[in-house]
Each structure stands twice: as structure tokens, then as C-alpha cells.
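=== RUN LOG ===
request id: a7f3
mode: sequence -> structure
chains: 1
length: 482
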Amino acid sequence: MTSPTDLPELAGLPLFSPTTPTPPAASRPASPAAPPSAAGATSLLARRRAARSAAGHLSMAPSVDWSLVRALRGSAAKELAEALGDRPGVDQAETRALGEQIVDDLVRAHVSAAAVAGQPADRALATALRTAVLDSLFGLGRLQPLVDNPDLTDIELYGDTTILIWADGRVTEGPTVADTDEELIEELAFLASQQRRQRTFSPASPLLDLRLDVGARLAAHAWVSRRPCAVIRLHRLQMATLADLVARGMLPPDLHTFLARALRVKLTFVVAGAQGSGKTTLLRAMCAEFDPLESVTTIETEFELHLDEMPERHRRVHALEMRPGSGERLADGSMAGAVNLDDLARLGWRLNTERIILGEVRGPEIMEMFNIMGGGAGGLCTVHASDARTAINRMVTLALGAGTTAQYARAQVADLIDLVVHVAVATDDTGRKHRWVSEVLYLEANGDGGLATTVVWKAGEDRVARLVHMPPALAEALNWRG
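=== RESULT ===
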């Protein structure tokens, strides 16, 4: 294999300047058509780029000509696909090695052609070009340094504008990762096509949701808005336990004890909270209380829990992800190749599962959540809500949207869900975000088929949850004393 140190030592070739000739258009991967930009955007975006450069935000030095990178990546992707077509069964490591060899050859050819034309090259810049092409082919391209930064939790892209959200709550502008709307769309489409679970991003499929191979979650849209946009959520606390969250001030030690006991006796939970409050982090930490040999099935629209990637904690995990289908509709109106929540839930019960976890309930899947919670002990899921009681009302509203009655929906919630845990989030004057468990409700069915709730834990102004009242039935189930 060719290594970057074997590249010709040529001094000063402007490989990365805007004037560097790029391969002909025929050699570049085609980009889906971009939606029209807002009027007058060009000069405004140029001023934004200049301002970011002057501000000295996160650098991505040495700066490369990304049109050249994209062209070389397109050539490399084509060659790699052809080579893999002749070698079935190649694993990921071999694919990477083959890709590196192809990229080395392409970079060498580009440097040699420039040298023949009388343009000297710099080894450091050639190596940077190689790294950039490999990052674009196997990683996230210009996004890679941002994703690799452990202090970032979210990356938002609005055309060529990059907004960074830091772990301490700060919001800043970041380096440009796409110079035009068309380039952002091209990068998102390529990224979607390269994931292990491929997605399509095009005018026919303008909404994109996928789990990146680095463990982050990406949501994007174009053609339904003036400009393409994307949001990447980075899961930085994947290995957090309830003890870790106690240390971070998210909950007190006695609430940790309470949750651990409730999980061990397999009560059913709904974890509620606003966007970015830490619902998934808390749910994942709660799962760390399971017996390592307990059989667990997770069902998600995009992988976020990652329990199957923690074999030291979870030895028996079936991690299932819904699949949107190919875009072609069948006679019954369903999408060809789609695998929906119903399909995965039915599969889950055939897998010797002791506990099913539904990642998030946002719509008609509430009915399948009822089936999951009623089909076995210890089910868990998350729901967006501003407080614990709103979470109950939201579940009832979602069930109404699925065609049930309010009485039926409230009866199902009462019968099937034991505890609602709400996570609150607030931003202080410095911009730092604080997250804490604000309330825990115990749910019971009352005599007339309705729903009764009891506040078990409640946080005060100091954001520390304290025990308010322990219902006798719950105390008995948990063997709670005191």
C-alpha cells in the first residue's frame, strides 16, 4: 500500500488554493438539484464567511480545496465500488485498506500531473489532501473535526452557516463545512448513501433521518425550505450510569436507589422531557441497572441507545431499527421494503425477549407502545413533554390521533405505565445548561376506568428531587422502608 510519506517531495504546489484546476465535471459525482436560495443571499453569505474567518473560530487547517476533495472522493468511491464488486465478502477493515490504496494512487496522480505542469508541491499539503479525501470517503468530510471534538453536543448547519452547541451550553458559530447550498445537499446525499443503512436524500425524499456510523444522529431537510439544513446530535454520555448522573447533579442518591429497585422489579417507565433535556441519556443510564444476562430488545427510528455496543453491560441485545422503504408504494399504500414499528415489535416477542425498549413515541406508534408495555414486564420509552402530567396528556392525545377514544387511551396509560420520570433543562445567565429529574409520578387505574396519579418525587427551587409520598402499593413492590 502506498503511504503518504511516499508522495513526491515537491515544494509549494497550490493544491488547495481556489484557483487550483479541478478534474473535469464528468469525473465529479452528480449533485441533486438544490432548492433556490433566498434573494440576495450570496453577498450576505460571503460576509458571514469573512466574519467567521476573522473571528478565528475552530480551524480546520491546513485549508484544502474541497471541490478537488469532492472530485477525488467521487473517483475513489467509483473505483472502490468496482473493486468490491469483484471481491464479495470483504470486511470493513479490508474495505478501508483498499480505499486507502485507491486514494493514495489518486493523490499521487494529481501531484505528479501538477509537477509535470511545472507546479511544485508541498508534502504536508498533499498529506492533508489525502486525509481530507479519506475523511470524505469513510467519515464525515469537513464535519469530521467537529464530530471528533468531545466538547460539542450539537452541530447545526444552515446552508453554509455552522452553529455549534457546546457541552457547557455555549452557542457559537463554527467553521464552514459547505460553501454553497448545492454542496451541502451533495454532502448530505453522499453521506446518506454511504451509511450501513442507506437512506435517500433527493427532491423525491426531502427529509433525512439517519444514525451516523460514529454514533451521532442526523436530521436534515431540503426542497421543503428555502435552504438545506441539518442538525447533528452527538451522544457524549453513552456510557453514563445512574451513579454518574448523581455525580453530575441530575438526581440525588436516594432517587438513584428508587429507580434501581423499580427497574429490577420490572416496573414500566416513560421518561419525559423537552428536546435536549437528557431523556435518552437517562434512559440509557437506567438500562445499566439491568442484569447483564437479561434479554433486551430495543426498537428505534434511528439507533441512539447503543446497548448492543456495550457487551460488558448487556450480553443479550437485539437492537432493531425501523426502515423507511424505497419510495415506491405498494397496492396497500405501504412503502416497498419498509420495516415499521409493528414489524419489529412482533419480531421482538419472538426473540426470547424479557424486556422491550421503545426509543421514542412521537405519533401513531403509541398504540404499539401500549402493546409493548402490556406484553411483558419492564418496558421503557421516551416522550417529549414539558412536565410529567403533560406527558400523560400527550400520550392520550397521540392515541386519539391513532383513532382511539380518550377513555380508552387514559385506561391504557393507567393500566400499562407505572412511573413517569420527567427531566427538566434550564439555561443560566452564563449560557450553561442544567439538567435534573424534576418529578416522578406513579400511575394507577381508579375505580371508574380513569387514571389516578401520585407525585412520588418532586424537585424544588434548588433542583433537587425529594421524596414526597410513597404509595403503599409501590412501597410494597419495591420493599421500600422509611
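=== NOTES ===
Residues 113 and 119 are 9 Å apart (CA to CA).
The first strand starts at residue 152 and ends at 158.
=== END ===
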